[in-house]
From TrEMBL:
Residues at which ATP binds: 125, 171
Catalytic activity: 5-(2-hydroxyethyl)-4-methylthiazole + ATP = 4-methyl-5-(2-phosphooxyethyl)-thiazole + ADP + H(+)
Cofactors that this protein relies on: Mg(2+)
UniProt key word Magnesium: yes
Pfam families associated with the record: HK
Family: Belongs to the Thz kinase family.
Positions annotated to bind substrate: 49, 198
Gene name of the encoded protein: thiM
Protein name: Hydroxyethylthiazole kinase
Pathway(s) where this gene product acts: Cofactor biosynthesis; thiamine diphosphate biosynthesis; 4-methyl-5-(2-phosphoethyl)-thiazole from 5-(2-hydroxyethyl)-4-methylthiazole: step 1/1
Species lineage: Bacteria, Pseudomonadati, Pseudomonadota, Gammaproteobacteria, Vibrionales
Length: 265
């Protein structure tokens, strides 16, 4: 029964995003701007890539959610991110933090913790190594790639959920969604997906879209990207065609396909 209820919640959330077309502000890295903007459009949301401090207060007054992705940090980006979080807090907007490469450098780890501590309404979406490092344990990082299993990061995610009163999505071969009420796991997706850069960043952006319509666990975004990636990979010869097919699949995804495909526990 729980699985059926969660499946219906995911379906309802997808319908809501397509109907409401929420505006998602993305303060994200240079590598993935195009990927994440197109994925948001394909699922039905409205993306804007905003980095200027001068417009952030205005943006957050009418946006649905804020996505902070630390993938290309420097001394100018960090204060912008902190200011964006402050503005999101003022307007009671959910913040999605993607701690790209957390654990790979002190700058990334310290910035991730600074943002997590500052955010009032927070969802953290990271790979296993990032989640472990953010929680204060030593994750196995290779650049921004995870060498830890998602199962190994569940205890760290529980700690983060308590520490920051947030929800945590660990993405990987098996996705885990950890909240103060419990956890869910998803077994959708495909082994080809990590060969497209920014796939996790795409999940973070989609998480922002669903948070904007009130689905703040991160489950709907993880489920929908996992199913879409699985279908797209079956139609693709390699990562290049997967990238295009993923957008088409997100655009075409329907209720029947989700019911048939979801592997949720």
């Amino acid at each position: 029964m729980r699985e059926n209820m969660n499946t219906q919640t995911i379906i309802n959330a997808l319908h809501a995003v397509r109907e409401q077309k929420p505006l998602v502000v993305n303060l994200t890295n240079y590598v993935v701007m195009n990927n994440t903007a197109n994925a948001l459009l394909a699922v039905g949301a409205s993306p804007i890539m905003a980095h200027s401090r001068e417009e952030m207060a205005e943006m957050m007054s009418f946006a649905g959610a804020l996505v902070i992705n630390i993938g290309t940090l420097d001394s100018e980006w960090v204060p912008r991110m902190v200011f964006a979080v402050e503005q999101a807090n003022i307007h009671n907007k959910t913040i999605v933090l993607d701690p790209v490469g957390c654990g790979a450098s002190r700058l990334r780890t310290d910035t991730s913790r600074q943002i997590a501590k500052a955010a009032n309404k927070l969802i953290i979406r990271g790979n296993a190594s990032e989640i472990i490092s953010l929680a204060g344990e030593k994750g196995q990082n290779k650049g921004v790639d995870a060498l830890d299993s998602t199962e190994a990061a569940v205890d760290a995610a529980r700690f983060l959920s308590r520490e920051y009163q947030c929800n945590v999505v660990i993405s990987g071969e098996i996705d885990f969604v950890v909240t103060n009420e419990g956890q869910s796991q998803l077994c959708n997706g495909h082994a080809m997906m990590p060969y497209v850069t920014g796939m996790g960043c795409t999940l973070s952006a989609l998480t922002g879209a669903f948070a904007a319509i009130g689905e703040e666990t991160g489950l709907a975004a993880a489920a929908i990207l996992g199913v879409a990636g699985e279908i797209a990979a079956e139609q693709s010869k390699g990562p290049g065609s997967l990238q295009c097919n993923l957008l088409d699949t997100l655009y075409q995804l329907d209720e029947e396909t989700l019911i048939q495909r979801l592997k949720l526990a």
